[in-house]
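Pasting as-is:
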Amino acid sequence: MAIAGLLTIHLPVSQADHPPAPAAANADLSSQLQSLQQQIDQLKAQQIVTVQNIDQPATEPMMQAPDEYDSDLPPYLFGDNTACPEFPTVRLTGFFQADSVWFGQDSKSIQAVGDVQNGADFRRARLAATGDAWENVGYMLEMDFAFPGRPSFMDVWMEVRDVLGGNNVRIGQYRQPIGMDALTSVKELTFLERALPFAFLPFRQIGAMYFGNTADEQTRGSFKTQNYVNSLV
């Protein structure tokens, strides 16, 4: 005997399995577009306000009217204390270099030159103050304390800038602009001492110097007058 039957199974189907209706999708897309357009309009409005604020002229002048004083002179000479710098200015600097030596001798060397002692000392020990005494007046005072028994003057000068054709005038003791070896600072040297040809350069001297460049900045030079007192340090 055969028995036949039909089995039916019902599975739950969620809404997510069915695509939304076209009308609902179009409504969501339209809502998103409207929201984005509102954000764009707000950003454009903010940009227009910023540009207007930049283009708007200042309601209060930044300084006194030009006709209240000679514009070729600094404003603080005419009572405008808002633009007055603090003079004099000063910057303290310095450095030191130590030199040490150890000797090894045999008996013949000791008999020839004596018993050479090991030693250590300061080769250079300097303190300096530099800055501006006024708007176009600079100065430098540098002393070296490494010489036995007394400090020594190194760079001691005062200069006036932007005079006589826009150039500079320096008076005092300073390094002469002759040779790169002389103008290179001892802090930048490869060795402790400069090369032998440096001994024939004038280097630091007391005097006056007019230096600068032409208006087109194509040439540069200096005119010096000084007494020749060398200081090879």
